[in-house]
Amino acid sequence: MKYSILFVLISIVLIYIRKDNVQRSHTTGQRIIQVNSNHKGDVIEFIVRSNETGHTHSTIKQTIMHDGPCGNTLTNAHPLKRPCTPPVHYHLKQNERFDVKKGTLGYILNGTNGTREINEYLFIPKGLCHTFWSAGNEDLIVYITLYNDQEMIPGRSADSYFENINGVRRDSPSFIATLQVQIGHDIYRCDLPKLFNSMFSKVFQMIALVLGYQIQYAEYTTPVV
Question: For this UniProt entry, which residues form the secretion signal (predicted)?
Answer without folding.
Answer: 1-19
